[in-house]
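hiii, so i know i said id send this last week but things got crazy w the move. better late than never?? heres the sequnce for the chain we talked about at the cafe, plus the structure i predicted for it. fair warning i was half asleep when i ran it
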Amino acid sequence: MKEKKAQTAGLARLQKWCGVRDRTEREVREKMREVMAKMATPPSTSRAEAWSEDWMTALREDHYVDDARCAESYTRVHHEHKSWGPLKIKAGLASRGVGGREADRAIQAIPEDQWQASANRLLARREDELEVHQNRVIRWLMQRGFPQRMVWTALDHVTKTARREAGGDS
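okay and structure toks below
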């Protein structure tokens, strides 16, 4: 009876935690270990493994855990709000335990021209630094996760736009 109550309370705690934002299976498994370790009487190793599988099954069935949905959400949020490029987002997904295929699918859901527009916009924000600190600005953009080809395309775009605005040739 006491054990069943502890198991139910642990699952409820995980459901609440997963309800805050999308989580990956790896994150949930780490949290499960944490939840079990904090129990008044932690379960034995074999019991803990059984509970983990039961909890994971319940969380998947109730749609609390879905790596693909988590990858899509993470990609969208970090692209739109943090202006990260695809390489940095893929690394972030890998650190959360999202596999390469799912990460690639989530990144490819955003069209290439949107990634390029983000790179162009970021570089345009630092356009005044380009003349003196071009290498630093390029490294900064690459650290934000944009591949070299996008960085060079953005540099060409910003340079052409600056020439056009200055009244030069295009």
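btw The CA atoms of residues 80 and 109 lie 13 Å apart. thought thatd interest u
miss u guys!!
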